[in-house]
Amino acid sequence: MLGTTAAALLLGTALSACSPTFDWRTVMNNDNGYTVDFPAKPGNDARAVQINGTPMQMAMQTAEAGNAVFAVGTVMLPDDSDATQRAALDFLRAGLARNVGAAPDAHAVQIPLAAGGHTPGLEMKVTGEAGAQHETRIVYARLVAHGRHVYQAAIIADQPLPQDQIDQFFSSFQLY
């Protein structure tokens, strides 16, 4: 009897260790013009933002997996001028960095288009303290303006993630 109980506990432990923390699925967001792989079923949210004094809505899709939150935020701009796009990108970059008390350092990256080709964007990785408990957070993000949309694809984690998980999320992020 003891051997059967021990075997059942061992099997239960082995099965729970095999349950995937990251259950990748492709999500097509036709309303906001992108596709991305999320590590879990995403939820939807929206929040008001003010960019250069202009109120705008930011639509969010987020999924939690392991020790991280994966998110894509989309801001619909009033126009597609370079100045409006630049202001929105600056707002998002500064906001991500400010959330962890870091400098808004970013470098150029190419964001894939679903129809082929690429469009220029920004990539950043910042680390700092967030929240009332001053907990360490790592923010990995890609920012891009495309037409009347500005996108923020981001991962927020409390410890470094394996590069393959970061690559899965960002390489799957494509704009229509």
UniProtKB/TrEMBL annotation:
Keyword field:
Signal
Query: Where would one find the signal peptide in this protein?
Result: 1-19
Would you say which domain of life the source belongs to?
Answer: Bacteria
Q: What is this protein called?
A: Transmembrane protein
Q: Which organism is it from?
A: Paraburkholderia susongensis
